[in-house]
Design brief:
heterodimer, A: mainly alpha, MetI-like fold, 73% helix, B: alpha/beta, Rossmann fold, seven-stranded mixed beta sheet, four-stranded antiparallel beta sheet, 10 helices, 11 strands, 31% helix, 23% strand, globular, binds adenosine-5'-triphosphate, binds magnesium ion
């Protein structure tokens, strides 16, 4: 892997992030002239929390954040503060900084999304590969159509479905079945210090339904892709020769079959990343999961555009990083692209 | 003739497809002596590859070994369980594949792919011993040891085929099956690879079945030649016998279709098409194309005649009867 290859990929990464930041900066501001500061003041005035002249306060805010300046100047000002690692403050939850909000929410999203994607990908790829191979267990053949049926259903529909079955209709489950929480990431009102077993279980319990809605709707997709790739791979000459050399069946399946069939799957994973992330935002909202998705949703509702900018920026960096990592790792797992790289 | 390594009796391989049953191999008898070189020739679709695959028990659905026995040193391979058969593959019988271009796993180094074979057949030696083994194998097939560290896409076609030969001889098999091992290579490399194959084969004393179309190549390489037509072995004789005195009309046509030594006469082929293997008519399958067909040929299938030189043709049934 040459320096130019790495340089080109990293350059691409920066370009993508910058372009997306720019688009997301102007889009909401051009599309709507809502003024979140004024809206907040009106709210405060309505509840009697604002004593001095509202216009003066609004003007002071706008001056502080440069909101009274032309949009392109605001853009330059925003960009330069982002480069310094400052994402400004929330206009609604003033004076909390956007960075603080993101730091608080990010671990939840990373945990939930990272875990769900990995499980769905691993489960789907493995079962798809097994199904394409001679001697696949019959029960697996029966299960796949179920997942295939689930996969075109959007996450959020599946989420409602799960809530209905496991929460609304709790009487359908056996006695010993625990009531699965349908909102939040841990039990309301419990203060934990440090991570003990009880807290881990609490978090896991809360993640079961949101994670399931992501996993259930994705397994079929990965299984289908992998099955197709694996059928092709199973007919390759190198698999036939491996069989004729009397290699162990599990080695042929893993190192000769899956290892090759997995390569296009990984590309799909990187490509699907942005779709997955956007789908997850809705799931978080439905389950009131305190992650980036809910944060973004609330920010859009309140037109808190510094928070919108911050969250979208982080999501874009997340997706672009996934692609970058894949670009950099791919030559290591496929020797054939190594020379081109 | 020495004690046979491999004895095939009445081997039948059928493919059950929607249109019916394709009798790809239909009652083949064959003995291969220790260290013998047998060439298997015949037109495309005559069942050569299917025969080789059946010996490896590598016939995949919709195909099946519908009958017969394949004995390796007295053990009937048809009866073995799949795990038992796995230890025979690569160990007692090895395959040199036709399409070497794609016969190696693209994401594994040659070294690892060679080691896979050793490990999976229970060779458990120190790193250094294994290393020495691989280096020796590479030298045997005329490759530099540094090829071990390359990936398949970094090798030429000839080098890949040499690697597959190294894999084939790695466990000193009793029998090597080589299905058109050089058909994907250019003529010069073809020769070199064939010579390498013959060198290592004679070193380990393995018997070999060489499948191919090229009678010229067979003449140089084989001790005996078997001629297949429509899933049947129609003639089997020593190379000298086959070229000096071919007895089956099909064999004669095959030989006369060879280019002359000066290379002027081009390969001319044999007029007509082989019969469909779906519905084999009664009588001799070659009859419709046979220049010497007689009345009986359309009625009765000819028996196999002879012990060492074998032929299946009414021309010879009659001479014997007469
Ligand atoms: N998977 C399959 N399904 C159906 N028929 C098959 C299958 N594989 C082989 N056959 C049939 O078996 C017959 C023998 O094929 P085979 O590959 O053994 O011929 P061959 O002598 O090796 O020919 P070639 O010289 O072209 O390699 C052919 O008529 C072919 O149509
Ligand atoms: Mg063939």
């Amino acid at each position: 892997m040459s320096i130019t290859y790495i340089g080109a990929r990293v350059g691409m990464f920066i370009l993508v992030v910058w372009l997306a930041t720019t688009v997301i900066f102007f889009l909401p501001r051009i599309a709507s002239d809502r003024n979140p500061v004024r809206e907040r003041m009106i709210m405060m005035a309505a509840t009697g929390n604002l004593s001095t002249g509202m216009e003066k306060v609004v003007a002071a805010y706008e001056r502080d954040y440069g909101l009274d300046q032309p949009l392109y100047l605001q853009y330059i000002r925003y960009l330069s503060s982002v480069l310094r690692g400052d994402l400004n403050v929330s206009l609604i939850r003033h004076p909390t900084t956007v960075m603080d909000l993101i730091q608080e929410r990010m671990p939840w999203t990373l945990g939930l999304v990272g875990f769900s994607i990995l499980v769905a990908f691993a489960l789907g790829s493995l079962s798809g590969a097994t199904l394409a191979w001679p001697g696949a267990p019959t029960w697996l053949k029966g299960v796949l159509p179920i997942f295939l049926t689930l996969s075109p259903i959007p996450y959020f529909m599946l989420a409602f479905f799960l809530i209905f079955i496991f929460a609304v209709r709790h009487e359908w489950q056996p006695e010993w079945w625990p009531m699965l929480p349908i909102a939040g990431a841990s039990k309301v009102g419990t203060i934990y210090d440090g991570w003990d077993l009880a807290r881990v279980w609490d978090v896991v319990r809360h993640s079961i339904l949101p994670a399931s809605s992501i996993i259930l709707s994705q397994v079929g997709f990965w299984a289908l892709g992998m099955r197709g790739m694996m059928i092709t791979t199973a007919g390759e000459d190198y698999v036939t020769l491996a069989q004729m050399r009397g290699l162990r069946p599990d080695r042929i399946f893993g190192q000769y079959g899956m290892r090759n069939a997995l390569l296009p799957q990984l590309t799909s994973l990187a490509l699907a990343m942005s779709l997955i992330v956007s789908g997850v935002i809705l799931v978080e909202y439905i389950f009131r999961y305190p992650g980036m998705g809910s944060l973004l949703f609330d920010a859009i509702a309140g037109f808190d555009y510094f928070v919108i900018y911050g969250v979208v920026l982080v999501l874009i960096i997340f997706v672009a990083t996934a692609t970058l990592v894949l670009d950099l790792v791919y030559p290591l797992i496929d020797p054939r692209v190594r020379r081109a790289a | 003739m020495a004690e046979p390594v491999l004895t095939i009796r009445d081997l039948r391989v059928y493919f059950n497809i929607r249109a019916g049953t394709v009798r790809a191999v239909d009652g083949v008898d064959l003995d291969i002596a220790e260290g013998e070189k047998l060439g298997l020739v015949g037109e495309s679709g005559s069942g050569k590859t299917t025969t080789a695959l059946a010996i490896m028990r590598m016939i995949k659905p919709p195909g099946e070994i519908a009958g017969g026995t394949i004995s390796l040193d007295g053990r009937d391979l048809v009866e073995l369980s799949e795990p038992e058969m796995r230890s025979v593959r690569g160990n007692d019988i090895a395959m040199v594949p036709q399409a070497a271009m794609n016969a190696l796993n693209p994401v594994r180094r040659v070294r690892d792919q060679m080691l896979d074979g050793l490990r999976d057949h229970g060779v458990n030696e120190s790193r250094n011993r294994m290393q020495d083994r691989l280096t020796t194998l590479m030298a045997q097939v005329g490759l530099n040891a540094n090829v071990l560290d390359l990936f398949p896409h970094e090798l030429s076609g000839g080098m890949k085929q040499r690697v597959t030969i190294a894999m084939a001889i790695c466990h000193n098999p009793r029998l090597i099956l080589a299905d058109e091992p050089t058909s994907a290579l250019d003529v010069v490399v073809q020769r070199q690879v064939m010579e390498t194959l013959e060198d290592v084969r004679s070193e380990i004393g393995a018997a070999v079945i060489l499948v191919g179309h090229d009678m010229g190549l067979m003449a140089q390489f084989a001790d005996r030649i078997g001629v297949m037509y429509a899933g049947k072995l129609v003639e089997l004789a020593t190379v000298e016998q086959i070229f000096a005195n071919p007895r089956h009309p099909y064999t004669r046509l095959l030989i006369s279709s060879l280019p002359d030594t000066d290379g002027k006469k081009r390969l001319q082929g044999i007029p007509g098409l082989p019969p469909s293997l779906l519905a084999v008519p009664p009588g001799c399958p070659f009859m419709p194309r046979c220049p010497e067909a007689m009345d009986i040929c359309g009625v009765e299938a000819p028996e196999l005649i002879g012990d060492i030189d074998i032929v299946s043709c009414h021309l010879h049934t009659e001479t014997r009867v007469a």
